[in-house]
Amino acid sequence: MKESIASKLRGVFAPIATPFTDSGDVALESLAVNLDRLGTSDLAGLVVLGSNGEACYLSAEEKIDLVSFVVAKNTWGKAIIAGTGVETTRDTVTLTQQVADRGADAALVLPPHYYKSNMTNAVLRKHYEAVADASPIPIIIYNMPGNTGINLSSDTVIALSAHPNIVGIKDSSGNLVQIGEIIAGAGPGFAVFAGSGSYLLPSLALGAAGATAAVANVFPNECAAVQKHFEAGELDRARELQLRLMEINRAVTTRWGVPGLKAAMDLVGYYGGPPRKPMLPLGSEEREELARIIQRTGFVVPGR
Hints:
The protein is α/β, with parallel strands linked by helices. 47% of the residues lie in helices and 12% in strands. α11 crosses α12 (257-267).
C-alpha cells in the first residue's frame, strides 16, 4: 500500500478553507472558484476537512458533500486527502469509509482528544490500528497538539508506521527534533509532512516528503517552489523563499488563525469569506495590517 501511494504523497498540499456565505451556509460556488485556481497551481494536492477547513464545525452531511464536490472538480489529477478524525473509533471508521467511497485518495486522522487523560499511547495506538485495519484507503496520522492538547510521541508514530495501511504523518507540533526522530525511525515509504509552512525547508532537510500548510492557500506556487528549489540543490533560492513566507505564515496560523487565513485569501483574489461562528472575521485594522504583511512578501499577487 505504501509503495502504491508514495508518488502521490510528496510535495506541498493546501488544507483548503471551507467557504461560507454571510448566513453561515457552505458556499460551493465560491469553493469552485478557489479550486479552479488551486487546481492549476504547482501544489501536489489538496486536503479537505482539515483544521483550516473548519471541519469540527461541519455536520456529517456537509463533510461528505464537500469531499464529493472536491473529488468531482479534480480534473487536474491532484491527490485528495480528507480529514476523518473524530472522537470515537467507530465514527472515524465510518467517515473514513464514506470519504473513500467518494474518491478520496487517503484519510488524515486527528487523534481523539476530548478525554485527554484517557488518551494514552496504548489507547491511541489501538485506535489508529483499528481505523487503518478497516479503511479501504491509506491513513495519514495528524499530530496537532496546538488544537488537541495531545502530542503523539515519536515512539508512538514510529510504532504505527509499521502498519501497512498507515502511510505517513502530518506533524504540526513544530518540533523539528521530533520530526527528525520520526523520519529516522519510521519504516520505508512512510511520508512525513511538515504541518506548517514555517518549517517546510528545515523539514525537507531532515528528509520530509513535503508540507501541508495553511499559507499554501494564499501563495501555493511560492510554497511549492521552496521544495522545487531544495530538490534541485538551489538552497539559497529555497532559503530566500522560506524566509519571505515566515511573516505571512504566522499571520494565517498562530496569530489570527482561520479568520486570518480567510482574510488573506480575500486579499489575494480567492474567496475567503467569513469563518463559521462562533469565530469572527478580522476587523478593519487587522485586515489593513494583514494587507501590509502580504505586500512585504514581495510576491506578485494576482488581481491586485
